[in-house]
Design goal:
4 domains; Immunoglobulin-like; 10 helices; 15% helix; Unchr_Zn-peptidase-like; 15288_t:CDS:1; 8-stranded mixed β-sheet; Jacalin-like_lectin_dom_sf
Length: 660
Amino acid sequence: MQFVLKDLLPVVINIKNGETVHQRVLLIYGRAGPRDVKFQSNITVEHHATNFPSTTWPVFNSHFKCLVHLDPGSNDIKLILDKQGIQFSHDSEPLTTILQVNYIPLLQNPPLHLAILVAKDSKEVIDAPKEKEKSGENKLESVIAKLRCAGYLWQAFTAEQMSRNEFGRRVFRLEEEWIEDTLSNQKPGLRQTAKVHIIRSSYTLEQILDPDIAQQNPNRNDDKKDLYSMFMDGLKEYGVPFNNQCYVAGLILDSHYENSHDMKLVRGHAALGGGGGNLQLGIFGSHLTHAWPRHLEEVVDCFQDDTITDETRLSNDVGESGTWWKCCNVGIGAFLHEVGHCLGAPHSPSGIMARGFNNLNRTFTVKEPNNPSPITPSDENGAHWHRCDIIRFRYHPCFRLLSDPPLSTEFKNLSADFWLLNEFILIKSPSGISLIEFHVEESLRDYIEYVHDDNHQTEVRLKISEIIEKYEKYDDNRVIKLNVISKNQTEHSLSNLQRFLRESKMILPIYGEVIKSPYLGKLDERLTEFRVFFNKFIANENESVKLKRMVVQYDYYINGITFFWSDGTHLSVGKDRGNKKEFRFMEGNEEIVELKVNSGWYIDGFEIKTNLGRSSEWFGKHGGDDHILKVPNNHEFESIGLYGTGDDFVNTLGLIYKLK
């Protein structure tokens, strides 16, 4: 069959000519050659006015995917279809499409740092098949190239996912430097490429490979220092840039698969992500790194290598790494899962933050071992970021675009709060709400997103009966949890909606029906709740005893608060220790109308504001999330007191309010 030129030319589907992107390696999906017939060919990618060499990518039944290196600025990319075996009317004419792409690195954003933890007395090699040991692919130099290549694959994958979810080509950037590049095996050369920090640990091989701390050991000793803490220690000892706010993908070099009579597990490996303070870290072991590509030219081969894993010397991680291409999926993909945690993504119902990384190969190749059909974007299955992950990334500082409005520092750490308004629940977040998730027994069932910048949603009212009716269908009386993500990246949860409804309303003498705000801090149900009213009524309902002053004691947390009334009575909560400061209320009707609180497991610190416009100084420290407790709609409601719990510290704190 003979074809005409226009029916055979490469056509790029996932990116427009002249589009602007923000990553060095661009994932392209397209069609080329005769459609709807079986044939195999190749696409050659040539870069105009750059020293990056040409690369070749397979075409399978007209489908192709390729990874294209870009230089900052304008890039003219030639996509040339190998016409061997294809007959068409202009046989001398090349089958070439030119794609123009603008690459603008987002240098103003914090980067993702790549790091390798190396034991103090490391042999600087990884587990690898014998044939790769002979070629030196098990050595540290090779591992650096593999991690660098994996970082660019993560970036290309994530940028494509953000685009498919209609958030533009936003993506995290990698920390880069001008050094000898390894992304191509043809012309290494000096280029701006991803920097890989080598973290020389103060811990020995024996300590890192201790079976008692191996994550896969069901009898591991949680009293010993774990691998995550060791990696954190290494970063802190290393210093710049890890002494400031940063995000790190950390590979443990010395992981080793132990295959002996009394032990079959990967020592020196942990798959964990998260962090605290300035350091956000995702870590993974090197036990599957032997299967990763070092260069773009190796990506397709590595994701299609059907060599069976020799389980006498190599790990078949969780039984899902029985061949080398599956090792590549799990190694790069599960590591990306931990990087997702580092960037704030929790576990999700599907995708990378579930176990969708087992399909990671499908993002980068159109062929899969033992699969007769081409892999199109609709066939990629688990290889995606869940929509809730995407929304978190949309407002993450690592993903900001130049066109995004400036970040407000006023509400930088301020979390959302929940308020009961009769039959509604009110969610307030001054920094703006991006996502509300509905969980039933900790499983995400549904979500509402607020992602349009022209609709800056700071308050949302939801009808409680509709929530319960919708989600209790999964199982009567199962716990419904609301999780709110704000645009400043804070998250705050109402852990049990039904309990909140049961316990939020009280009937009190004189006051009648009153409502408690959700508490801040960590509830310990063994503790007795205290209640403090700004006016304590005595026998004659027209007379009340006023709250006159508060004495707050604190060091790292709020240790104790003592409340004093005008009749000489007082109430003490927590312990009598630490710094001591006092706030006196003015004569008349001065009362608390607002609490600014910083809390985590305990109440770290707070400041009060009164109806006379006066504010106290800040009591305590800042170690948790920021909240503002202020009664909603002060025309309808008024605050009448505080409640909470205390033991060695002030554990929880909240407001009591009622209809006027």
